[in-house]
Amino acid sequence: MFRIFDDLFFAYVFMSNCYFPRSSKRRGEFGEWVALKLLKKKGFRCIHRNWRSRKDRRMEIDLVCLDYDTLVFVEVRSRSEDSRVNGWHSLDLKKRKSMKKAARSFLSEGGGCYDNYRYDFVEVDLPIKRGSKITSYHHENIAIFNR
């Protein structure tokens, strides 16, 4: 029920470009909404939003999607466009390990039978000036193993 209200609110924010959420939690939710909109436009089908493991609630995946027959685990990072570190560089070793662990947990907890899966990353840059456009970047099939 609340997700519908959030989606309507985020659609209004997206269309009006006059207000962006100030709290980091709301900014993250808005970034996930923008990322989902981008992925749906590319033909992805979302099967889970904010999936959490039953065994360990700290393990979370922002979006779990299907790209044809490939399961896609998506990490979303929302930042203001003037932040010191962009979304891609904020994906440190600790977060990459967490993503792998959460994906394994998803697959072992009955996430379905998928032969292929991959990790994607969506970076959402929120403008600091009114009337500016939101920019988002979709990085497909990222390597999250040790560099």
Main beta-sheet strand count, sense and barrel state:
5 strands, mixed
- Please report the number of helical segments: 3
Low-confidence spans: pLDDT under 50, at least 5 residues? none
Widest sheet: strand ordering: 1-2-3-4-5
Give the helix proportion (percent range).
25-40%
Radius of gyration: 15 Å
What is the global morphology?
globular
Helix/strand/pairing category: alpha+beta
Mean pLDDT over the residues: 83
**Order of helix and strand elements from N to C terminus:** HHEEEHEE
Tell me the distance between the termini. Answer: 42 Å
Strand content: 25-35%
Strand segment tally: 5
Architecture blueprint of SSEs:
Elements: H1 2-16, H2 24-41, E1 45-52, E2 60-67, E3 70-80, H3 93-108, E4 117-126, E5 135-139
Parallel strand pairs: 3-4
Antiparallel strand pairs: 1-2, 2-3, 4-5
